[in-house]
Design a protein that fits this description.
GO molecular function, one term: oxidoreductase activity
Strand content: 25-35%
CATH architecture of the largest domain: 3-Layer(bba) Sandwich
Shape: elongated
Protein name: NAD(P)/FAD-dependent oxidoreductase
Helix content: 25-40%
CATH superfamily of the largest domain: FAD/NAD(P)-binding domain
CATH class of the largest domain: Alpha Beta
Number of domains: 2
Number of strands: 17
Cofactor: FAD
Subunit structure: Homodimer.
Oligomer: single chain
Keywords: Flavoprotein, Oxidoreductase
Radius of gyration: 22 Å
CATH topology of the largest domain: FAD/NAD(P)-binding domain
Length: 301
C-alpha cells in the first residue's frame, strides 16, 4: 500500500511550502498536482522578495526541484478525484484519475480557487493586460489609461480607490450593475468616469487590450486594467470530508490550518475561498505544516 504521513493536494505556493517544511521534518509526504493553478495564465508574479518578476511556471519548477532534494517527499502529477475516510480506519484514502489509491494519516487541502467572469472573451486578456490584483500588477500599468470592471458597487468602489493609486486616468465599468448616487459621486469627484452599460466585447491583439466595446457600440479606449471576478473552489473535498464552513463560505480553522475534522488541514486560497498573494499562501502552508507535524509528534510520542 502507498501509505504516507500526509498527502498534500495542490502544488501551489501553499502546498509546496507545507511539503518543504514537512519533508525537512522527515515526514513521508505525497504531493499531488494537475497543473491547474490559477496563476498559470500570468506572465509574471510580483511581491515575493527574491523572486519579484518570476514567471509562475519558473516559480513552481524551482519549488518542485527543491522538494525533490528530500527523499521522503514524493511528487505525483495527476488529479485527485475522491477522498474518503472509513469509520474503522485511521487512514484517509485518496483516489486519482488513473484509478490509483494512496493512504495517509493527514490530509492538507491546498488546491486554491478559480475565477469566473461575466464579460465575454475576457480570458484572452486576463493575465496579460487585465488583472485582479493591483498589488501584484499595478506597478506595470502605472499611469496608463486603465479600466476597472466590477459588477457590484462594493467591488467597484474598493477596486477603483485602490487602482487610483497607480493611475488617475481611470474609468469604471459595471457591466449593467447600478451604482448609488453617493457611490457614483464619490468616484466622479475624482474625475473617474462611471459607465453602467453592459459590455459587448473586449478589443485588442495577442492579449494586449486596446478598447472595450459597450452594448451601444461605443468603444472606450483602454490599455489595461483590473477586473473583479467571482471565485469558487474547484472541488468539493472540504465538503466531502465534512469540514465546517463559516457564514461567509470560509472553511473554519483554528487559525493554524486545522479544520474541524481531525486529520484534515487546509492552506492558501482554498481556506477563504478567495484570492491571495504568493507571500500569504506560502505563510499559510508553513503554518499548516507546523500544525501537522506537531499533531503527528504528539500522537506518536
Amino acid at each position: 500500500m502507498n501509505i504516507f504521513d500526509c498527502i498534500v493536494i495542490g502544488a501551489g505556493p501553499a502546498g509546496m511550502s507545507a511539503s518543504l517544511t514537512l519533508g525537512r521534518a522527515r515526514r513521508k509526504i505525497a504531493i499531488f498536482d494537475d497543473g491547474t493553478n490559477r496563476n498559470r495564465v500570468t506572465q509574471e508574479s510580483h511581491g515575493f522578495i527574491t523572486r519579484d518578476g518570476i514567471t509562475p511556471h519558473e516559480f513552481k519548477e524551482i519549488g518542485i526541484s527543491e522538494l525533490r532534494r528530500y527523499p521522503s517527499i514524493s511528487f505525483y502529477k495527476t488529479t485527485i478525484i475522491d477522498i474518503e475516510k472509513s469509520e474503522n480506519s485511521k487512514l484517509f484514502t485518496v483516489e486519482t484519475s488513473d484509478k490509483q489509491k494512496f493512504h495517509a494519516e493527514k490530509i492538507l487541502l491546498a488546491t486554491g480557487v478559480q475565477e469566473e467572469f461575466s464579460v465575454p472573451n475576457i480570458k484572452e486578456y486576463y493575465g496579460k493586460s487585465l488583472f485582479s490584483c493591483p498589488y501584484c500588477d499595478g506597478w506595470e500599468l502605472r499611469d496608463q489609461p486603465l479600466v476597472v470592471i466590477a459588477n457590484s458597487e462594493e467591488h467597484a468602489l474598493h477596486m477603483a480607490k485602490l487602482v487610483f493609486n497607480w493611475s488617475n486616468d481611470l474609468i469604471v465599468l459595471t457591466n449593467g450593475a447600478k451604482l448609488s448616487l453617493v457611490g457614483a459621486n464619490e468616484l466622479i469627484q475624482r474625475n473617474i468616469k462611471v459607465l453602467t452599460e453592459s459590455i459587448k466585447s473586449l478589443q485588442g491583439e495577442n492579449g494586449v487590450l486596446k478598447g472595450i466595446e459597450l452594448a451601444s457600440g461605443e468603444i472606450i479606449p483602454r490599455t489595461g486594467g483590473f477586473v473583479v471576478p467571482s471565485f469558487y473552489r474547484p472541488n468539493k473535498f472540504a465538503e466531502r470530508l465534512k469540514c465546517e464552513f463559516g457564514e461567509n463560505g470560509e472553511v473554519v480553522t483554528d487559525g493554524n490550518g486545522r479544520t474541524t475534522q481531525k486529520g484534515v488541514y487546509i492552506g492558501g486560497e482554498m481556506e477563504k475561498g478567495g484570492p491571495s498573494s504568493l507571500m500569504f499562501a506560502v505563510a499559510d502552508g508553513s503554518k499548516a505544516a507546523f500544525s501537522i507535524n506537531t499533531d503527528i509528534t504528539v500522537e506518536r510520542f
